[in-house]
Amino acid sequence: MTKILLYIASSLDGYIAREDGDVDWLPESSESSYDAFYKSIDTVIMGKTTYDQILMFGEYPYKNKKSFVFTRTSKNNNEDVQFVSDFEKFVKDGFPGTGENIWLVGGSKIITSFLNLGVVDEIITTTIPVILGKGIPLFENIKNKMELELVKTEKYDQLVDLHYKVLKKPQ
What we know:
Elements: E1 3-11, E2 15-17, H1 34-40, E3 43-47, H2 48-56, E4 66-70, E5 82-84, H3 87-92, E6 101-106, H4 108-117, E7 122-128, E8 136-137, E9 147-156, E10 159-168
Parallel strand pairs: 1-6, 1-7, 3-4, 3-6, 4-5
Antiparallel strand pairs: 2-8, 7-10, 9-10
């Protein structure tokens, strides 16, 4: 059974990036749940903006996972990534070609789309102890109320993970 997991860091005031997409405020090295989480997933899904930003940091980091990038423009697939232009068909068809544990990497637009379609099963946010004041919000234009159940909290040095199960998904 496919499970969609949103695992993402945000500032204390709920931003996942600065207005220009910069994430320079994220800690470079810190104890976290990332390694264990990464081992638990077999597929990554992200938007094109996030994909382009990841490539700016160097080599594509998810080569050992199935990778899907959503883009409005068609792209040729390469050995690391499959580009998907028909988002709704991909979701309607049950996420063809993916594994069972799918990491919804980001960004904000694809997170909103997945949440509004009601396909996210769990939300894990790592709160970074910084207030940005403005930027790209984690949640934006969510159409319907979603009910969540707190599964666990975990503290890692100055970081806090909040792990929720989505109970009531939008219809």
